């Protein structure tokens, strides 16, 4: 909707109406009695280890049984989780239809690219959507959110046309009591207007990409200022939150940051509480932690491997995420919740490119979405800001139209003046930790 010509050319008031109507429809579909009941069930067992364990075991057994009985990929395995192989994005992409259960009702499709830049389309049903929203409700409850609170949203939606150069760089979702601010227009000269807009709206909870809210916190620090309004909390997700950025945000916004780690594959979720501990949500998915060496200071690192509970249409069992956690020695948290604790999460550190106006653009995962035939991407930016996109492709799918779409997506995020070239390669080079950087800047 946000990139359609009708939306982009409409007056701001009409854009607000479009956005609010879209949000109302989504709200009606997701926030029903079933979602509320599920939310309360999740809240009921977070302080009770016995109830949580029973819930987890029941969900895991149900997932394995359904997958074995309905999914072609899993039919040769028995009901013991340990007999299932580890899988990853490449394996799923190579056997897309074999992971699909028989369709019942409406199917919602979404895509993820992650740090490898290879889009993975994940179908889900409404039950999965409702379950996901219930977990979001609980996470917001941890952050102190109450029904009717005013929120700010600073994430990856292209709510303001990229070519717009003057404020307002925000729109309003009236039925959600939310101001939505563009992450694509956060040039230094615009940041004070972002602060003013949130204060004037009376924001109580901020939901944001770490890179977006950290940009505002750094602006306040540079000017030796603090957020002039009263904020209950900041809720971050979709990128790794650095400890120094967390401290800076909490200092400058005078509140606690609640960080959320999740994936569109729905195979793991980790949430931080009011005491700053990261909890593996064992009612969301079954998570295994595979040893992955040690950090430079000798702490144990582990890869996150997950089995999803909440997408029976596309169950993924023992899915290797490629993301890592640093293990913690703590067994109990002052918050009293009984979920396992990890010290920190590695992965998703926001690589960025520089847009035509000099702004740092951290949100890169959206660029490959919708482009068929991509197996991997990496953005290499030259001193003149031109970009070479290294791509590993399926030749049968990645044609001239898909190449044009990838270039168009890049220009929509970074500006029409940016020169973009596509270069096919056999493989994307990896770092010493085995990861692929989304962006490399040669300056």
UniProtKB/TrEMBL annotation:
Name recorded for this polypeptide: Phenylacetate--CoA ligase family protein
SUPFAM superfamilies: Acetyl-CoA synthetase-like (SSF56801)
Ligase in keyword set: yes
Lipid biosynthesis is among the record's keywords: no
GO molecular function, one term: ligase activity
InterPro entries: ANL_N_sf, CapK_Type1_Caps_Biosynth
Organism whose genome encodes this protein: Pseudoalteromonas arctica
Keywords: Ligase
Organism lineage string: Bacteria, Pseudomonadati, Pseudomonadota, Gammaproteobacteria, Alteromonadales
